[in-house]
Input
Amino acid sequence: MASLCASAAEPLVESSAGRTALVYAPTKLPAFGSRALVVVLHGGLGNAQRLASGRIESALNLNTVADAGGFVVAYLNGTPVARFMGADKLGWNAGACCGQPVEKNTDDVGYIRRAVEDIAQRYGVDRSRIFGVGHSNGAMMTQRVMCETTLYAAAVPISGPLESGATRCPQARGKRILAIHGADDQNVPITGGRGKGMARVDFTSEAATARVWQDSGAVYDLHIVPGAEHSVDSISAQLQKQESQTLAEKIARFLGLLGR
Output
């Protein structure tokens, strides 16, 4: 499968549910009311602008794939991880990780639901075609949303397990999850425990996460990428070598938004 190479324009800055978000809507889309939406959550110390711009985690590049597949992409913002790190270093209250969002018990589940409903209404999204994608702390938050709500029809968490402490996720029964994790990830180890990043928490293993989803009746697939580390750049580079597709293409194909 050849990689897509078309370039996408910058997404629009939107204000949704009290925070800014970036929304990319291709020129060619299905009819209003029938469109699909992919909700993307940045990792810890990241933000929507960095993830959407292609300058830091460039390999995600969902905008280009959205052009080919004809779907809307929304990059949401978390809240500051720590006072001393600046207002652009954001995270999510996904469980044990990370920083102030957890300490303040920020209602990120509520925020995401409100923001997605607002964006879906503005852009004519079919509520049955809303999907979640997240990296690292954003992957953990994506899994929490999948566990606690019926918002997402399917989800792709990247480099991040379920950290909320839940042992059952009845809302996810019958839904599909593709978890992608680099085999050489030392920030959030596949086997769990403390990584080499700044989080300084003991992470849940992917095996334990898989048991929760499987016990909850979800269709859960863990794809461990040989040779890949924590970043989406590293994972995408290895996928291109091994599968001749980018990470963004793999995500869109799993969600049924891009032809095989």
Summary: The chain has one domain: 12-254.
